[in-house]
Specification:
Order of helices and strands: HEEEEEEHHHEEEEE
Helix content: 10-25%
Number of strands: 11
Strand content: 35-45%
Number of helices: 4
Strand order of the largest sheet: 4-1-2-3-6-5
Structural class: mainly beta
Largest sheet: 6 strands, mixed
Distance between the termini: 81 Å
Shape: elongated
Length: 237
Amino acid sequence: MIHFIKISTFFAGIALLLASCLSGGKKTPDNLAPNAHQVKAEEVIQTSNYTYVRVSDNDRDYWMAIDKMDVKEGETYYWSNGASMKDFTSKELKRTFRDILFVSDFTDQPILLEPKMTPATTMGRQQIAEQSGIKVEKPAGGITISELFTNKSGYNGKTVKIAGMVVKFSGGIMDRNWVHFQDGTKSGDSYDLTITTKDTVNSGDRVIFEGIISLDKDFGSGYFYDVIMENGHVVNK
């Protein structure tokens, strides 16, 4: 009986070790969020704006693109929100990825189940911090972000102009560029406008964007926007 217990304990230990290896060397937290993934970084490629990471997720192996960050091969990371693209070509790498995920919340900290989740989390978007000290002049015939969010239904489907500052730019995702835009005004907790565009801008640029306002826009993979400007273009730089 003693030998049987020792042998059983030995094989239980081997099983735990194998489970740990498959999950990237760390035991999967019991309270990991249902939509969260624990992965191991197998290969890392750095570019000027993005970090490309090939990860293993149990028996899966796939590429993802994230905002540029320090990622170490062999380490364990977590993500929950991603948009899949097929045949994506990185001009900087001169390489086409047959399948790739653009992930917005890649982190080295477990994404845990929380009793209450913020709207930004449940909708699959990163919460962009409110920038202080932004002062811009409202363009002729234009509106402010405060006016837009205060009367969003009145602007639905209409073309508007808004002056402001680019606080974040992400290029080439789902065949368009994505801009987070603020002008120093707000309505309640709404101060940041997401814009899709073919134009290229940089964080810190103060410009005027013109585009069509859409409400309750769902791009899939958790990317839902109650207010967004689509097909925006810069009318001045």
